[in-house]
Amino acid sequence: MMQNKIVECVPNFSEGRDLDKIEKIVEPLRGKKDVKLLNYEADKDYNRVVVTVMGEPEAVKNAVIEAIGVATKLIDLNKHEGQHSRMGATDVVPFIPIKNMTTEECVKLANETGKEIADKYGIPVFLYEDAANSPSRTNLAKIRKGQFEGMKDKIKQEEWKPDFGEAKIHETAGAIAVGARMPLVAYNIDLDTQDVEIANKISRCIRHSSGGFRYIKAGGVKVEERGITQVTMNITNYTKTSIYRVFETVKMEAKRYGVNVLGSEIVGLVPMEALVDSAAYYLGLYGFSMDKVIETNLME
Question: Which N-terminal stretch is annotated as signal sequence (predicted)?
Answer without folding.
Answer: none
